[in-house]
Amino acid sequence: MFFANHTLARRLELVETLTGRCFGGQIEAIDYAGGVAMFAGVGSPVTHAIGTGMQGVVNAAEIDAMEQFYRSRGSHAEIDLCPLSDESYLPQLSERGYRVVELNNVLARVITGEAPPADPRVAPGDGATYSRVVAEGFFGPGEPPPEMLSIGAALSNAPLQPYLAHLEGRAVAGGALNISQNTGFLFGDATVASARGLGLQRALVETRLAAAAAAGCDLAFAATLPGSQSQRNYERCGFRVVYTKLTLRRIW
């Protein structure tokens, strides 16, 4: 049993922050407000700040430095904000003109040692193939955006691990796993359009849960759009919503 409180939120936000820092030289990043602000190209889904505001008061100088980081690269500023962040944080962002552009549910589950078995259609993969599959899942067929390739290069390095699901010998779905603080973070899920509805995301979730259990984790978590098929797949695997994060954006 676990409770959706500040202690849990700090643990999950820390693991997400550590995951962001694992990308190393593949993307630009700065420490910010206890978390990390990342830049992987204008418009990239990775270009945002994560894990921030969980360690106490966030001051104006910190926000100024983060905004300059993004402004100097021609990007708007975007922050994934945990609702359990320090109470000083959100009012400052509101005063600066940040607006909510997306919501994401964070779901977690305890790992008891009885995680579901790995699915034979799923296996660890390489970052380059993962990048191509996930890019097609998000953007449709075609050449992956350059920032997706750089992310794939980072995923080829421990401790980040991409997983691929195959149909008839072709990789058609992917999801990634990072293990830190005895916690498995499941992220980066996508399935190409022609392979949806076949249970592949659930297979990816169950395989990564099995890997987290084997590594000694006692907790796993992920984030999905509210009410999405991804949320339903995670809930079918025993996850439950513990809080909803705001994505806040400031456009210059």
SSE topology sketch:
Elements: H1 6-21, E1 28-32, E2 35-39, E3 49-50, H2 60-71, E4 77-81, H3 89-95, E5 99-110, E6 122-124, H4 127-139, H5 146-155, E7 161-167, E8 170-180, E9 183-191, H6 200-214, E10 219-224, H7 229-236, E11 240-250
Helix pairs in contact: 4-5
Detailed description of the structure:
The protein has 252 residues and is an alpha+beta fold. It has two domains: 6-105 and 245-250, no CATH class; 110-242, Gcn5-related N-acetyltransferase (GNAT) (Aminopeptidase). It is 32% helix and 30% strand. It has seven helices and eleven strands. The chain has helices at residues 6-21, 60-71, 89-95, 127-139, 146-155, 200-214, 229-236; strands at 28-32, 35-39, 49-50, 77-81, 99-110, 122-124, 161-167, 170-180, 183-191, 219-224, 240-250. It has an eight-stranded mixed sheet with strand order 4-11-5-10-9-8-7-6, with helices on both faces. Strand 8 (170-180) and strand 9 form a beta hairpin. Helix 4 (127-139) packs across helix 5 (146-155). The longest helix is centred in the first third of the chain and has 16 residues, at 6-21. It is globular. The termini are far apart.
